[in-house]
Write a structure and sequence with these properties.
Rossmann fold, binds 2'-deoxycytidine-5'-monophosphate, 5-stranded parallel β-sheet, alpha/beta
Length: 229
């Protein structure tokens, strides 16, 4: 019997998760899910409603909002009740607040439930911080991507400047380090490498090299499970 696989890709910001996960999903013809975009969406809405400090209100808002993610042709989009938030979820303000919103236990429960529903049938590449540890601890293949802080800073600064946001590298670095710290030390589902995740240091790899490496690992697992890719 051929079933489709669940591929989990975790790691800190700027480690190459999104680029790799999208290209891998394209290559496999699997779904792609950026779970960070969900945490960003609720953060963006909380900012808009001016309720950042009110956990109860944030949970209320999340419970009554339909967050939808779409992906096609390398383009991932986010909607809340059909209103597109794709650009605003990448703002500096969201960057500075998303880690604090992601610490809220109930926010995680609601979003993890949604992520499990989306991935339940397999045939998905899901990226985040806790996919291999919490969302799908039984994922078929797990990767944990890392890169040096200087490399991650360079990538993020370039990415932002390509979108017309010119920010000094020192500020980007500080923001990444701050998010790393909150994401890795929070009580609920901290950013952690799952024991059985394959570590991939992308600091000195080209995008092609990292995608090919990951694809080959997925192919090995698929073969061992009798799954056709
Ligand atoms: O992947 P990203 O940088 O867009 O994620 C934004 C934030 O969302 C990240 O700093 C922590 C949070 N996040 C999380 O807590 N769990 C996930 N599975 C994905 C993201």
């Amino acid at each position: 019997m051929s079933k489709k696989l669940i591929v989990a890709i975790d790691g800190p910001a700027g480690s190459g998760k999104s680029t790799t996960a999208k290209l891998l999903a394209d290559k496999l013809k699997y779904l792609y899910l950026d779970t960070g975009a969900m945490y960003r969406a609720i953060t963006s809405l909380a900012l808009k409603h001016n309720i950042l400090d009110d956990e109860k209100e944030i949970i209320n808002l999340l419970e009554r909002t339909d967050i939808e993610l779409t992906y096609s042709d390398g383009n991932s989009r986010v909607f809340a009740d059909k209103v597109e938030l794709s650009d605003e979820i990448r703002s500096l303000e969201v960057n500075s607040n998303v880690s604090d919103i992601s610490k809220i236990k109930k926010v995680r429960q609601i979003l993890v439930k949604k992520q499990r529903e989306i991935g339940a049938l397999g045939g998905i590449v899901m990226e985040g911080r806790d996919i291999g540890t919490v969302v799908f601890p039984n994922a078929d293949v797990k990767f944990f991507l890392t890169a040096t802080i200087d490399e991650r800073t360079k990538r993020r600064t370039k990415e932002m400047s390509e979108k017309g946001k010119h920010v000094h590298e020192d500020m980007v670095k500080e923001s990444l380090l701050n998010r790393d710290k909150i994401d890795s030390t929070r009580e609920v589902s901290p950013l952690l490498k799952a024991e059985d995740a394959i570590p991939v240091d992308t600091s000195f790899l080209t995008i092609d090299e990292q995608v090919n490496f990951i694809y080959d690992e997925v192919a090995k697992v698929a073969k061992s499970k009798g799954v056709e890719l």
